[in-house]
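task queued by scheduler; priority normal; single chain, no ligands, no partner chains; default sampling; output format set to structure tokens
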Amino acid sequence: MELAKDSLLKVSGLKYRYPSAEDSVLNGLDCEFKTGEKVAVLGSNGAGKTTFFNLVSGLTEGYEGSIKLAGTEIKKLKRVEIAKKLALVPQKHEPLFPFTVRDFVLMGRYARLGVFGIPREEDLEVVKNAAKETGAYKFFDRPYNSLSGGEMQLAVISRALAQESELLILDEPSTHLDFKNRFVVLDLVRRISEKRKVALLMSLHEPNDVVQFADRVIVIHEGKIAADGKPRDIINEKLLLDIFQVKAKEIKTDKNSLFMPVSVCV
């Protein structure tokens, strides 16, 4: 299959096995992501979602198959080249130093700084606008390590936006967030994707979030892609039973279906 003109990321025959493991965590993944898509990756704990994101972000090496970022094999790209094309919001980020949020977001400009690495006026403007877009501007001069979980996530997303990449990857962006902040973060990245025409690739645990915030879902199960398509066509009671061993009841609404867990099937 040839690379589509609007393709940002193409994965072909992707396999990966951790050095200490006998079996592969990913075993032959094929998928492609295009400009402006909002894609959720769904799967149980240990399915390989984080491994997949680390591979396509160039953070993990030693894979078999092909990962092409904007048409170039990712292992041939330097970190600064990758950072211009994709931005990763990791699952965990430990605040080791008391940087201000302003300085933390500025780190997202690293790949685009001039020869001497000194931020220009345009870089500072990009940083400020990114923080305003996410709401992080309200605590712009506070130490990053003093923020709440929700505020910290907004700051990390601001840093990713400051990279001005075409692909935004978020690894479980709603983890450890309460009911309100989970909605705030997921609704925010959905609106950013639509406004900036940025492709969005995010891993989610909650099927109802996939239905509400994604246009496409890829289901990873036992190292392979078990399903790929529109959430309303893919997510159903049978899939949730097969993937999560959870018996769920479908509740139809005016816009879409929601799924309520009923029991666990062991």
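post-processing summary
- The mean pLDDT is 92.
- The radius of gyration is 19 Å.
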